[in-house]
Design brief:
The structure is a homodimer of 451-residue chains.
Chain A: H1 6-16, H2 28-44, E1 48-52, E2 59-63, E3 72-78, E4 98-100, E5 103-105, H3 113-127, E6 135-141, H4 151-157, E7 166-169, E8 181-186, E9 188-197, E10 203-204, H5 205-208, H6 215-224, H7 247-254, H8 260-267, H9 280-285, E11 289-298, E12 307-308, E13 311-320, H10 326-344, E14 347-356, E15 359-360, H11 366-379, E16 384-388, H12 393-402, E17 406-408, E18 424-426, H13 427-445
Parallel strand pairs in A: 3-6, 3-7, 7-17, 8-16
Antiparallel strand pairs in A: 1-2, 2-6, 4-5, 5-18, 8-15, 9-13, 9-14, 10-12, 11-13
Helix pairs in contact in A: 1-3, 3-13, 4-12, 11-13
């Protein structure tokens, strides 16, 4: 197997040495230094590279000299990293890259510096061979780990300069070594807080038990009705927009190792949640769910306090399947809860906390087909077609602001410890990623967007 | 209207000056001094008066010279008082008795020094007229406000010396001025904590929502099933032992001022709690209830945290109707919850925290009939027959340990501020209470116990 050259490795290790932790304000200077280093590096490869200020960390944009007769590919990555805590569990310092067992260990090694830098190595090599087969725009942000609060406005303001045919992100995981994956879908989210009010103040349950309605009891009854006996969310209309799962994905998911047993062993919980008769990966990846995230009412300390509480509250999050819309779901949820409060004859409130769009690129999209071909070229096996049940806000942002298909082709491995101590990245993946970049450029360049 | 003599009032005010607060260890010496003062006072009336040590505050027992040919009446009272807090709301110092508008204001004025001392004034006067019509045992404890933790063992150890035909307590409230009441029943209690366990740790609701069962959802469903659609507790067998309400009490309750509207205004809560079609006083006084006292699960702070919580817990209290038994109820409750955990396929736990017996003396008990006659003599109107929904542990203790009917004839008024700042007691009630003592002694002495 080939491996990245010493100078390429040195550059990568320099990149890893920046403690560009977006969640910790004390590292703001490190983030700016990291962004400036990227601009200098990309400019040294004869790209037009700029540092764009935002209300937070800067966005780095670099591009090849535009050619009107070629398509345009946007590569997204993020130069910020997770905090290192718990610091004492790291075997070597998180910002001093250390190679052990063929892997470099450092914070950000896989998420996302390693995955991004693999493509950049591929880019540098390709630039040495002549013009690229397509125009390339590289966008590297510094706030992905805190939810990309400034990326949406940035993309919107710069949507004309950033116009492209496809966006590529490598910030997800492969199935295992040598087993590539394309992540076609992510779920959206809508979060709420619900309160049911009873007496003006906590009441003596002896003096008033049997007379005064108990808001904790009413809340329990309402939450019990949130799902029907088949585990479906009982809110009329909530499934209306849910995108059916394509046959090609359904077939692909049957071959994956994540079954009911895997989930039960991983979580320690019963897997009887969700809709009866629907396979577990469908439930987690492609179906909406309604979860109680928290309950609060009355007495919470040790022992007894015999009261009828004045108020009972619940925190709820709904995960949304592709094609569901957080605002429409929010409207249905709010109306449903208000009907429940009325039916119970109790004063209640429901407030929408925040929402996020789901994401989906269909497997028959020409760029997904191109990515399947490119991954097959490099790995000598086709990628698994997967999804994830959580949200990656940038994926939906790129899709919405730039109106292009987004390809999520991960280069990390499940045991790379993203977000955990001793994060690592296989050095061989720098080389694989460089090859993949070349293959994707070639395949994408030959692809015409679906109209 | 007659009024207590200056020396009787002086004695009463001396009694009120002891800060005999049982809940505050710094007042232990005051409680002992108060008990010693009572022993000295009662001995000065030629009673056999003794101070009995317990693990807490002493119990004062005083008795007339026993006559074998007479019945025996036990008068119970407590010399301890509630804390004074919030101290700044008192218009005059709580342990410096102050007369305003015909009432003495002091901590303990009504609860229970005033009500007890009214009987003691009656006793002193009666002793000046010759032998009492019955033997009398006075029991004054110093820990009623902290739940009488040492009274049960004391009564049990001394049950032979304390053998009597009836026990009298004046520690409840009249309906209003001139409107006497007999409290025939009190509810018992059984308290529990319930926990439902889900995943080993809080899980990401995006990664696992739809796969891992949510214990807050399961707990809500179980608690929703705790009552049926008619508001009845859905635990089979739980109503088996509930004592039906006598016709005489039912008629009496219809004439009382506490209706649905009164409860709604007093609590600010809907009165749709409890069993459908059953009058509200029945529900609060004579029917069991199951209340959620607290709920705890997952995220409780501001904002969202999109987790599937590892555990969800609830605090529950059941109020028990007369003839229900806390141990039997506990067994039914525990079995019911265990069946619910099994049916849900979730690991759950329910633990019994503490229980207390209900209390009841039937209206046809000869001593209740005698008390009705005595109250009618003194007030020129018959007493209302009431109950309370809460527990007064001493009532059940006296009934159980001494196996006698217990008569609860309150001399307080609803606006006497028991347990609140500016507690008061009408001076006229000292006189009324003295007359009532004489009337009760006479009527009780003429009563033969039901066999």
């Amino acid at each position: 197997m080939k491996s990245a050259s010493p100078s390429e490795l040195e550059l990568f290790f320099d990149y890893l040495r920046f403690p560009s932790i977006s969640a910790q304000p004390s590292h703001r200077g490190d983030s700016r230094a990291c962004a400036a280093w990227l601009v200098k590096l990309l400019a040294s490869w004869n790209l037009r590279a700029d540092l764009h200020e935002t209300n937070g960390a800067p966005v780095v944009v670099a591009r090849t000299e535009p050619r009107a007769d070629a398509g345009t590919i946007l590569l997204y990555g993020h130069y910020d990293v997770q905090p290192i805590e718990p610091a004492e569990l790291w075997q070597t310092p998180p910002f001093e890259p250390a190679v052990r067992d063929g892997r470099v260990h450092a914070r950000g090694a896989t998420d996302n510096k390693g995955q991004t830098f693999s493509h950049l190595i591929g880019l540098r090599r390709l630039l040495g061979q002549g013009p690229l087969p397509a125009n390339l725009i590289v966008v590297l942000e510094g706030e992905e780990e805190i939810g990309s609060p400034n990326l949406g406005p940035f993309l919107h303001a710069h949507r004309e300069e950033l116009a492209c045919d496809v966006a590529l992100i490598s910030d997800t995981s492969m199935i295992g070594p040598g087993r590539p994956a394309l992540t076609l879908g992510l779920r959206g989210i809508a979060c709420f807080e619900v309160a049911v009010h009873g007496p003006r103040v906590d009441l003596h349950s002896g003096m008033f038990g049997g007379a005064a309605s108990n808001p904790a009891q009413t809340l329990s009854r309402i939450l019990a009705r949130l799902h029907d006996e088949n585990g479906r969310i009982a809110i009329t209309g909530i499934y209306d927009d849910v995108l059916p799962i394509s046959e090609i994905e359904r077939d692909a998911w049957r071959q994956l190792p994540w079954d009911e047993k895997w989930f039960a062993q991983t979580t320690g919980a019963s897997t009887s949640a969700g809709e009866t008769g629907i396979p577990i990966l469908d439930r987690v990846w492609a179906r909406p769910t309604a979860e109680i995230n928290g309950l609060t009412s009355g007495h919470q300390g040790p022992g007894s306090k015999t009261i009828i509480p004045a108020v009972a509250t619940a925190k709820l999050s709904f995960r949304l399947a592709p094609r569901q819309n957080p605002e429409r779901v929010s409207k249905l949820v709010v109306e449903w809860f208000e009907r429940q409060f009325d039916a119970a004859g109790m004063r209640g409130e429901i407030s929408f906390d925040h929402g996020g769009e789901p994401f989906y690129t269909p497997p028959d999209d020409p760029f997904i087909q191109a990515a399947i071909a490119a991954l097959s070229d490099v790995f000598s096996r086709p990628p698994a077609l997967t999804r994830e049940g959580l949200s990656i806000p940038v994926a939906a942002m790129l899709q919405q602001e730039l109106q292009v298909p987004v390809v999520l082709a991960g280069l990390g491995l499940p045991d790379c410890n993203a977000h955990s101590p001793n994060e690592s990245y296989p050095l061989a993946h720098l080389e694989i990623g460089a090859d993949l970049f070349a293959a994707l450029m070639e395949r994408f360049a030959a692809t015409r967007p679906k109209k």
